[in-house]
Recover the amino acids of this structure.
């Protein structure tokens, strides 16, 4: 499958998944209103955030294909980061709201919940989310963006299963607090994902090195390349998740310049980062030792 066909297939999968999640979201909101179920409403809030995440993933596949411009020299992929920031904040609001509502119900006494419509709506959500999961699974293995979308739907699937369990408990035992307890469980499921999203956003926007990038190991690989004497001014950051960028000044032996091997050395260094560290965008400044000795005066 060609790169363009892969992007098209991913967009089609995401579009169908968005339609499924949006439909189930509306059904769950209506079902929560009819049944009085807080856990169903919590799952709908979870799905609202996941719907935003899926839309961000879809936009990312479209925006990533746009070429860089003189203004956006790295392209437009950082739009995904701002989308993740909004998504993370939505998750925090949903988790806090659900927690407050659930504690209020547990402390304030029993609230009647109609378990039959609750069970029916949650079952519809479970089946629909399972279908969306199967739809996204083939692309989740070779695309970070699609893997994120897959995990969004997996979270919805777990939320629907939690609501079903609560509905069955209420239906069979009449234990109404099961609904509030299920709501708290869904809130607990939301918090780690919100924390992870916001942590990754802060890491990207602060231009920190990606968590899975070992800068020391990269430096050792560069120093182990024939003709390299030293490396300094190493910088690693990410345009968006899964798109690391690397720059460094590399001090070379005089023979590299005399023999015209600079092009070969650049190919070796770029190939090393691409092969061993999945860094596709790397920039190296090759310099002789005498230049490196007085370079600091230009960096003041």
């Amino acid at each position: 499958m060609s790169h363009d066909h892969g992007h098209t297939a991913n967009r089609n999968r995401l579009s169908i998944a968005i339609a499924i999640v949006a439909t189930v979201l509306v059904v769950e909101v209506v079902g929560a209103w009819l049944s009085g179920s807080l856990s169903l409403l919590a799952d709908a809030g979870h799905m609202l955030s996941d719907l935003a995440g899926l839309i961000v993933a879809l936009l990312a596949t479209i925006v990533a294909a746009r070429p860089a411009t003189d203004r956006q020299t790295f392209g437009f992929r950082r739009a995904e980061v701002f989308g993740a920031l909004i998504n993370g904040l939505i998750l925090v609001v949903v988790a806090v709201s659900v927690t407050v509502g659930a504690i209020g119900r547990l402390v304030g006494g029993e609230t009647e919940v109609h378990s039959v419509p609750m069970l029916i709506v949650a079952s519809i959500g479970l089946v629909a989310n399972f279908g969306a999961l199967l739809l996204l699974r083939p692309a989740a293995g070779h695309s970070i963006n699609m893997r994120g979308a897959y995990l969004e739907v997996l979270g919805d699937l777990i939320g629907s299963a939690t609501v079903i369990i609560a509905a069955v408990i209420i239906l069979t035992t009449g234990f109404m607090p099961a609904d509030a307890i299920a709501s708290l469980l869904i809130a607990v499921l939301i918090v780690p994902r919100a924390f992870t999203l916001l942590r990754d956003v802060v890491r990207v926007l602060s231009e920190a090195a990606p968590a899975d990038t070992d800068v020391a190991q990269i430096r050792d690989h560069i120093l182990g390349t024939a003709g390299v004497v030293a490396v300094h001014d190493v910088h690693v950051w990410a345009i968006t998740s899964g798109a690391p960028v690397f720059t460094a000044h590399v001090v070379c032996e005089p023979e590299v310049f005399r023999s015209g091997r600079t092009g070969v050395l650049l190919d070796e260094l770029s190939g090393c980062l691409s092969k061993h560290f999945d860094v596709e965008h790397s920039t190296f400044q090759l310099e002789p030792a005498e230049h490196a000795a007085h370079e600091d005066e230009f960096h003041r």
In short: Residues 215-298 form a domain with the Alpha-Beta Plaits fold (CATH 3.30.70.1350).
